Amino acid sequence: MNASVNSPAAGLEAIFTEMRPALVRRAAAMGAAGDAEDVVQDVWLKLRGVDAPVASPHAYLLRMVYTAVLDRRRGTRRAAARDAAWSTPANLPDDGIEPADAERRLIALQTLQAVESRLTALGDPAAAIFRRHRIDGVTQRKLAEEFGMGLSTIEKHLRRAYAVLLDLQEGQA
Question: Which of 24, 82, 143, 171 has a CA positioned 20 to 30 A from the CA of residue 6?
Answer without folding.
Answer: 24
